[in-house]
Amino acid sequence: MFDKVTEIVAHMIGFFHIAVEEERMRDAYDDFKAQQLANAETNDLTNIVVKFKAPYTLKDFTPVVEYTPTDLEQAPQFYGPEILNTYLPYYQPLAGAAEELAWAASGTPSLSFSFNRPHLTLEPAGSVVTISIQSAWMEDNDDLFLNEIPAEFSDPAEYLATLQSLNAIAQVLGVAATSVSLDLSESTLGTVKALHDSMGATDGTSRLGETVTALHGEEASGSFVNGETVEETPILDDIMPAYFQAENPDVVLSDDAPEDEDDPDALANTDPFQGLDGPSPASEQFEIDDGHHLVTGANVMVNDVSISVGWLDAPVISVMGDVVDLNVISQVNVLFEHVTLNAQPGAMFSTSLNVATMSHISSQPVTDDAAMTEDASAAPTGLPQNWAVTRIDGDIIMANWVSQFSFMTDHDRADVQFTGSNTQIVMGDNTIVNLADILEIGYGYDLVMIGGNMITVNQICQMNVVMDYDTVTYTGDVPFGFSGGDNLLFNGANISTTGIDSYTDMTSNFAQASDAFANGATTIDGSVAHDSAFAGDDILTVLYISGDFTTLNCLDQTNIMGDSDQVHLALDNFQAQTGASIELVTGSNAAINTASVNVYGVDSEVRVNGEAYSDALLYQANLIDTDSDPLGVALPALANEAVAFLAEGMMSPDGEAPPDAEIVATSPEYSGNPDMMQTMLA
Fold first, then answer.
1. Beta strands 386-392 and 539-545: pairing type?
2. Residue 134: CB partners within 8 Å, gap ≥ 6?
3. What does the alpha-carbon distance between residue 383 and residue 526 come to, in Å, rounded to a whole number?
4. Of 104, 408, 571, 580, most Cβ neighbours within 10 A?
5. Cα 182 from Cα 189, distance rounded (Å)
6. Is the pTM of this model over 0.70?
């Protein structure tokens, strides 16, 4: 083996030798290629003989071309009763009409019949199921020690145990009905009925000292903020923590029109590449504000879902089974906050908001009485003379299941002293976003006949858990800006339905048609097509579903954030060294859930042979604690009480409770049951 220097020299010589050999070979190759091209053999050109033949002789220009078409094929002649059973284009066979022949005395057949309606085809509706599972996991527990003798801090693992307890508490505060399982491999009627019963049993009783609002039925219609009816819901940008409002000030747009709005040259004088410049110089990218800034909070977690559905609807629907229509919004905020500044309380006011809107809007335009009378008199009153029918043997399912889960810990420990002129230390300011946007547009018919049940469930479950225990100590008598607390917990949910269903009893003509479909029929008769509900329709489109028609929009959103910071500022002789100001931010966190379910349809008359179940539930709960000691005994006791609530009703048949399970934070990878059918409403 060579020594290090000899090894390097040997490698260098080897590379040089290889480069020289490559150049020599290239020179030899060029000589060889030149000789090869000089002695290239040239073959004779291929001789191809092309023969042209023009058997037609051109004549002079003829301005008028005379064309005599060939004789048309005569229709086949049929005699006797066979003509009545002949398949004619676009018409159904006239089966059974042969018996109506009236033979004259002379023996000549006399036909008395009319053609049937055209036979139309119609595409059947389909099913759609989407499953979206989004999870985010972040652990940003930073340590920064700038002093020779570091301050003594607590272990962040102790705060993690507290956060686990808060998660157990939040599980208790949600609607108990969400524990019902769901399996789409069979009818969901029993499960949804159990959900309906659980919704009715949910009230505003406080379990762990939280403030609760529970509204049912018509009371849940409208806009609400923390249980109070409002005309306008708050705008998220207006209630963000102060840190984000300072970093992203609102842009005020002038109401005055620009002076050059009518100038035809205004667009021509506009730079089309404005705003597309390259990145700013490094000095601008990393420019910091004057003074010293330390940020250990300012974290943001966002779960956002928007579902817009117009899948299947009809002005008239008949259901041989039961009808269930449920709308549920469950919102829970849990905030445990304790901020001390040299052992003195130092938290700013935090905000916890549950915002919900439920609305049902008619699909008919709003008009005055005079216009309605005029429109009614001008509307056509004729009944359909033709109809197109299609059928589905089985169920139609329209299901959207979205689960968004975010977990973050930002337990920072900082022992800092400032010596420079300007300082920017950011140990927080993290952002997690889960986003889902679903749009589904399907089918529309004049009549939908359902042999089973019609089930509709729109459910939004939202939960925020924020733990913000900050401990700040400092030495020296130097005033500085401090922002502790100022957290935002926001749940925003909206269920909007366009198209109001009115329920009536089943009529005999629809019931007989449904029974005929169940026995294999493929069309309807005049008793259904000429029902008064279809007055004004020329052609009737009909869909028959032998099973259930199930619509599910289930959204589950969870944010769990732990931001317990321990900060020590060594400010002795600070003014003499720098003379700049100090800004410290340990709070200003935001946990945000926003969800919207928009269902678009038409006003429908639903004729039900079974029972009709319709209900709405709005459940909002806030649990805020600003006094508990994060490492004390009060919180574990509260968590044990929460576990007792969870265990209620979970006893085994023999009366023994299952063994206690350790409450742990959700893992970074989704470890739940991948079968959405088992946890659709969980």
1. parallel
2. 303, 402, 403, 404, 405, 434, 435, 436
3. 10
4. 408
5. 10
6. yes
